[in-house]
Design goal:
single chain; 120 residues
Length: 120
């Protein structure tokens, strides 16, 4: 079982910045992919960005150019630098990891979520 320590959420004004961090521990396997999903109020959970062990990134169009994902492999920690925040970025942000994919089955785990609110 994977344990998570998420931090960095909060309330920020439009145009502001926040940095989320997520440290994962307890996996018996290497953590292949680390990333962030978000769930806005009343909407489905969606991918924000993820990054592989090798540094390959996948970033949602809605945040491209504003959000940057990075990773510290040695500490199994993933960061999300969020700049130029907009009210539509308001959501609960969830840390997500994949420890392996076997026969099409993803072995994945979720953090508890951290609230990000963008408002005046």
């Amino acid at each position: 079982q994977v344990q998570f320590v998420e931090s960095g959420g909060g309330l920020v004004q439009p145009g502001g910045s926040l940095r989320l961090s997520c440290a994962a521990s307890g996996s018996s396997f290497s953590i292949y992919v680390m990333g962030w999903y978000r769930q806005p109020p009343g909407k489905k959970r969606e991918l924000v960005a993820d990054i592989t062990t090798g540094g390959s990134r996948n970033v949602a169009d809605a945040v491209q150019g504003r959000f940057t994902i990075s990773r510290d492999n040695g500490n199994n920690t993933v960061y999300l630098q969020m700049n130029s925040l907009k009210p539509e970025d308001t959501a609960v942000y969830y840390c997500h990891v994949i420890t392996g994919i076997t026969n099409g089955v993803r072995y994945e785990y979720w953090g508890q979520g951290t609230q990000v609110t963008v408002s005046r």
